[in-house]
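Hi R.,

Here's the chain you asked about this morning:
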Amino acid sequence: MGVYVVSDARDDNLEVDKEVDKDAPLHQRKDDVSPEIDPEATLTLSDAERRQLELLDANNRALRAQADLDNYRKRVQREQQQESRYALMPLLRDLLPLLDNIQRAIEAAEKHQGTESLLEGFKLVAQQLQSILIQHDCRSIEALGKIFDPNLHEAVSQAPSDEYEAGKIVMQIAGGYQLHDRVVRPSQVIVSTGPSPE
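And here is the predicted structure, written out as tokens:
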């Protein structure tokens, strides 16, 4: 049984246009009462959506680039702070042999009579140099009697010791120094092998 679609005429006369099968699914009806969507309007809408997605993508890329730039700046700033903090390392490495020689001169002067004024002069120079190093946060590494630590000490030899157990430092050959938390020069030491065999 067919259904007739009636359209309004301008002169208010009702007029029968076509027969429509009401049992047919909506998507198969050829003449639908709803207006058709303009294909150009669909393209424009899709174009606007596409442009909005492109804009969002470009915005996300810009935000990521900004974050990368900020991270780069922070990393460079940290590296510059580290470089300035440890800028004295080469100077300290050059000064430490001088300090060693002053210490040796003091030890030699202590063994000989009549060198008291020379000894006092060397001690004064050594104290002054030590205080300068401490002002710049360069400190000597404790060694004698400590457990050997390869991060802080350089073992030049081993020796038996009744006083120190195995693995402890029995003698310091040359002093080690740290600038802040970095080793400028490790202490050169002799490490105990334990009591001598009898």
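One quick note: The longest strand covers residues 14-20.

Cheers,
M.
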